[in-house]
Every structure is written in structure tokens, then in C-alpha cells.
Specification:
Strand order of the largest sheet: 1-2
Structural class: mainly alpha
Distance between the termini: 30 Å
Number of helices: 8
Number of strands: 2
Largest sheet: 2 strands, antiparallel
Strand content: under 5%
Shape: elongated
């Protein structure tokens, strides 16, 4: 018997000959491969964070620029990242579920808050960088992101770098908004710009690894192949007899 015939016989054992117990259906396996959700999540986070953080750092714009940025941040950093968090849940990636889920929710709330300010439903604080209510939310985000950072240290130094700088930036924003320190808010903007840059790098590294199956850019994981350019990371699963004409894993 050929190897292919033997694999087919093992996979269909108990199904074709009806040897399964009465009342119990034979097990079936459904393969639904998905792209790494963090590719989208990191890209959405990086884009929204870079634009807003560079404004906080004083690179451009004014204190009212957030009203213009809010819709884009809510969609790019909010909706896209929240969806990535839910797909990460499906992919059993707890770290990505926590990070993208919480930050996606934050960016959606950021958009809603700025709409309320623009319609004068809420009164903007004076000065704009003294807003304890927002500050305490950043305090909560700093704690949550710090937890994700500790977990990421067991998996990837690259991801831990993104989350650790995000934790520090969130903590600085918390202090800046609670105590009304413009200097802390500006410092937070610089730190968050660094976090956005690291997130873009990781998104690019993960995308290239996903499309080529090799480490084109180092992923900074605990494994030589993941950090060596050209290192082979994955081997596609192909069941020649399962679905004729379909290459499994794509």
C-alpha cells in the first residue's frame, strides 16, 4: 500500500466501515487557517498612535487638532484593532486579544469623546492637558498594558518592546492629565511615537514572515530561525486527498 493510501485509510478509519458506536458521530476536523491578527492590529495601532502622539509631542497642529483626527483614529486604531483583537481570540492568542481588544476599545471611545466635545455636549477642559477623568483611564490602560508586557516577555522581545513603551507612554499621560503637566504629556507623545515605530516594524516583520514562511526581518522571538534572515518558520499543511485542486494552508 502506498504512503498516500495509508494516510487516507488512517484518516477515514471508523467512518467508511461504520465501526463507530451507535449514537456517536465520527469526529471531523475543520481547518480554517487565518492570517496573524496582529498584523492588522499593530498597523492600526501604529497609525493612530503616531498621528495623535506626534501632535501631543508638539510636532504639529494645536490642542484642537484632535477633533479632526478623531474619526480616523476611531476607525484605524479603534475598529480595525478591535476586530484584530477578536480574531486573535479565535486564533488563541491571549496577549493580542488583551492588547488589541483594550486599545481598540480605547480608540473608539476617543473618537466618541471628541465628537461630544465638537458638538459642545461636553465642555473641553482648560487647559486641555488637565483632564483627570481621561488621566485615570490612561492609568487603567497602563496597568492592563503592563500585564500584557509581562506575558509578552515569555514569547517575543519585539512585542514586549512595543507594549513596554506603550505602558510607559500611558503612565506619563496618566500623570500629565491628572496633575495638569504639559511637560509630561509632551514626553508621553515622544515615547508613544517610539512605540508606534516599533509596532510598524513588528507588523512588517510578521507580514513578511506570513507571506514567505521565512524570517525576512528578525521577529525577536526565542528561537534562532525567527531572528535569522531567511530562517524557515513554517511548513504548509497539504492534504492531497482532502480537497482536489486546493492547497491547504492558503
Amino acid at each position: 500500500m502506498s504512503t498516500l493510501d495509508e494516510r487516507r485509510r488512517i484518516a477515514t478509519a471508523g467512518v467508511e466501515d461504520g465501526s463507530w458506536e451507535d449514537g456517536f458521530a465520527p469526529p471531523r476536523v475543520f481547518l480554517q487557517p487565518i492570517a496573524a491578527p496582529s498584523i492588522l492590529g499593530l498597523a492600526g495601532f501604529a497609525g493612530a498612535t503616531f498621528v495623535v502622539a506626534s501632535n501631543l509631542a508638539g510636532w504639529w497642529g494645536s490642542s484642537t487638532s484632535g477633533l479632526v483626527l478623531a474619526p480616523f483614529a476611531a476607525m484605524f486604531g479603534g475598529l480595525a484593532q478591535l476586530l484584530a483583537g477578536m480574531w486573535a481570540y479565535r486564533a488563541r492568542d491571549g496577549i493580542a486579544t488583551l492588547a488589541h481588544g483594550t486599545w481598540g476599545s480605547f480608540w473608539l471611545a476617543y473618537g466618541i469623546l471628541n465628537v461630544l466635545l465638537a458638538t459642545h455636549t461636553l465642555t473641553a477642559p482648560t487647559p486641555w492637558y488637565h483632564d483627570p477623568a481621561v488621566g485615570f483611564w490612561f492609568f487603567a490602560l497602563a496597568i492592563t498594558t503592563g500585564i500584557a508586557t509581562v506575558a509578552a516577555l515569555t514569547e517575543s522581545l519585539g512585542l514586549a518592546a512595543v507594549l513596554s513603551t506603550l505602558t510607559v507612554g500611558s503612565a506619563l499621560l496618566a500623570g500629565g492629565y491628572i496633575y495638569g503637566s504639559h511637560g509630561w504629556v509632551q514626553a508621553a507623545g515622544w515615547v508613544l511615537v517610539v512605540s508606534a515605530g516599533l509596532a510598524w516594524y513588528m507588523a512588517a516583520a510578521m507580514l513578511l514572515a506570513g507571506t514567505t514562511g521565512r524570517a525576512i526581518l528578525p521577529l525577536f522571538k526565542y528561537g534562532k530561525a525567527a531572528n535569522k534572515p531567511g530562517g524557515k518558520l513554517v511548513r504548509p499543511i497539504e492534504l492531497e486527498w482532502a480537497e482536489p485542486g486546493v492547497r491547504m494552508g492558503q
